[in-house]
Amino acid sequence: MIFNFRNLQRYLRAKLSVFFNQQENDNPKIKKIVNEVYQISNDFLIFKKKNRKKTHKIFSKQVFQLIRNKNFLNFLQFSFIQQMFFIHNRLYLLSYLNELKKSPKWKLWKKLILENTIGNPVRYFLYPKSSGNKIFQTYHLKKYQDFCQIDLRNFKYIVEFGGGYGNMALTFKRINPNAKFIIFDTLEVNLLQYYYLKRHGFNINFNNFNKFNGINLINNIEILKSKIKKIRKKKNKLLIANWSISETPLNFRKKMFFLFKDFDYQLISFQNKFENVNNEVFFSNLKIFNKRKNRKTKIIPIKKMKDHNYMFSQK
Q1: First and final C-alpha spacing in the chain
Q2: What is the pLDDT of residue 210?
Q3: How confident is the model at residue 1, as a pLDDT?
Q4: What is the DSSP track for 226-282?
């Protein structure tokens, strides 16, 4: 009942933007990319779902069915995609948008929140040039830049743990086209990211040990470690993890802890609890670890979101 009610709420909020959305239609270019993704997925018809919470097992199955059915058009209108990846038409986003507008860097933020038609994203009904999701993610970057006082263009290497449908990668490519971006995610979500970012014309490396340019999609820990090893001594690298770490099992976090060791600059957001896991303890301990590494680290409540926080870190 709760799940259905939330779906109904999401559906009604999306209807506020019905006059601003732009329906996608198929064409040969899109079909080519869809077939590329489908061919890659042929190698992974039997995929493992270890180290996942119940919520993500259900979602992964839905995404894989989308891929196997070649049902990519207008995917950002799908309820299960919105539930996991997309914030839209929430009134509290207006306060984030107003904060972006008041910033001395509004010219940059305005550029970054400009929405496109790929996936037919739900436009923000109070600012139809953008979507709630772009406003939300750009706000994270704004808050992080306020914290560390570093020009985001200085980051040449970005690793994102859990990359949604690829919006943050697209955003950083707008900030610095030469930046090398890694998304570490599950196989099926990597495939969705492949589709979205290919539609934008980017070169994509998929689980490739050797190549390291453009955007790198990885779902293998050993490949990720090999990439991190190559940039370990680089100073201008950033780790992004928006809600992803706090939604993974504790035993998997231990396997991924090498990321925290190697990245001084961290932009992380988390909820205090997720499926009975107390994330406050985990991130309090991570804060202590960062301080031992001589990093300036702070946990900051996210405005308008009860029991959700940022954890920012810098050298």
Answers
A1: 47
A2: 75
A3: 40
A4: HHHHHHTT-SSEEEEEESSGGGS-HHHHHHTTHHHHH-SEEEEEEESEETTEEHHHH
